[in-house]
Amino acid sequence: MTTATAARTPQALNKLMFVKLMPLLIIAYILSFLDRTNIALAKHHLDVDLDISAAAYGLGAGLFFLTYALSEIPSNLIMHKVGARFWIARIMVTWGLISAAMAFVQGETSFYVLRLLLGIAEAGLFPGVMLYLTYWFNREQRARATGYFLLGVCFANIIGGPVGAALMRMDGLLGGTAGSGCSCSKACQPWRLPGWYGANCRIARARRRGCRPRRRAVSNSALPGKPKRARARAVTR
Amino acid sequence: MKNWLTPQILLAIFVYFCHQITLYTVIFFLPSIISKYGELSTMNVGLLTSLPWIAAALGALLIPRFATTPGRCRRLLVTGLLTMALGLGIASISGPVFSLLGFCLSAVMFFVVQSIIFLYPASRLKGVALAGGLGFVNACGLLGGFVGPSAMGAIEMSTGNAMNGLKVIALVLVVAAVAALRLRMGHEPERGAQASEASYT
Fold first, then answer.
1. Please, what is the angle between helix B127-159 and helix A54-82, to 10°?
2. In degrees to the nearest 10, what's the CA dihedral of B145, B151, B153, B159?
3. Hey, CA dihedral for B18, B88, B64, A199, is it positive or negative?
4. Residues in chain B whose Cβ is within 8 Å of chain A
5. Nearest to B27 among A144, A157, A158 (CB)
6. How far apart are CA A120 and CA A95, in angstroms?
7. Residue A62 to residue A91: CA distance in whole angstroms
8. In A167-195, which positions are buried (b, 16+ CB within 10 angstroms) versus exposed (e)?
9. Of A42, A207, A196, residue with least CA distance to A114
10. A138 — phi, psi (to 5°)?
11. What pLDDT digit, counting tens, does each position of A13-42 carry?
12. Of the residues A114, A145, A200, B85, which has the fewest C-beta atoms closer than 10 A?
């Protein structure tokens, strides 16, 4: 394992942290951005299938940002208390579930309620990650790490259109509306988290041992193979 | 809360706010601006729209790593904001090709500026105050994401041309760049000790 042997110098440890921490964070941010833009793609179907007017759509889109903005500070304070692993996993799981619940929207009221809840659930990802990066990277490295994290916005804007269009073509495929296609694809994602975040505490241990992780310490005994319930427990652990 | 309302944090928030105005305006208006370049299919508009984001990705990948010392951070931040302003300025006055190049030039610096600006609150706050402070900075920046596109829409409605909105935003960015000149990190020597700083950058 190159990673295990290479982490003997500070530079190598930095590299290891970039490799272990950044990909998941970038994916999380891409999903969060796609989530915001997908609602624009579902607009037409909300109108046709559920009789939600353009004005109601606009209000719903705005309500999301209301609770989103209000929840950012509390979310970060909680994360400081309970730790990043649990809290970022919580953010992703709840927003996946609420996005999936969008598939069951019945009319304007349920649409508004879900948008408000989505704002609360999704708030805190960006400031949470900004805080998280201060735990791991020193001043010299942090701008670089933040730059990598923000790649998520670029990717989301590059792939957002085509992905949304492809999901829209799922319309009627599973007997649901296009909106439900968008939502369900989101709900599957957060389950990847625990294994990855397990890797983080391995790096932390490596750090405490003076940058010299043993081979076993870095090898990733991640969770994807385990049954779903075990994974669900790992999220709340 | 008291910790967050210091002049330096508010200054960082102001710069971030101006940045978010620009970012969200470009996110919302770029496709419609590009579709006015000529007879383009939806696919082509999509492809052209992705060009500035590819430029932004390159910028985010390659440039923030140079922001290692307070002096370099500030220089990169100010240069970044001025480059964004210049790019949007070019985009607002020229034909399709140069306009798109202007957007690309501007986009290169989008995430360079954003990744550096978060170093400032982090250098002045600690612990709980830092946790809440980062939430506060981001929530205020989010306001820019509201103000930008709606102001842009209002300007387009009243003057009939989206390009006038871009000119206003370019001006706002120049103001932000001037403001960014006054940003100092918490651990940075105050004014007067600038000479020693120059020696180690």
1. 160
2. -160
3. positive
4. 27, 46, 49-50, 53-54, 56-57, 60-61, 63-65, 67-69, 73, 110-112, 114-116, 118-119, 122-123, 127-128, 130-132, 134-139, 142-143, 145-146, 185, 187
5. A157
6. 9
7. 20
8. bbebeeeeebbbbbbbbbbbbebbbbbbb
9. A42
10. -80, 175
11. 888 888 888 998 999 888 887 776 666 666
12. A200
Q: To the nearest 10°, the Cα dihedral for B130, B134, B136, B138?
A: 180
How far are the Cα atoms of B146, B158, B170 from residue B21, in angstroms, in the given order? 8, 19, 10
The yes/no answer to whether this complex scores an ipTM above 0.85 is: yes
d(CA B63, CA A224): 35
C-alpha B68/C-alpha A196 separation (Å) is 28
**CA A97/CA A102 separation, integer angstroms:** 9
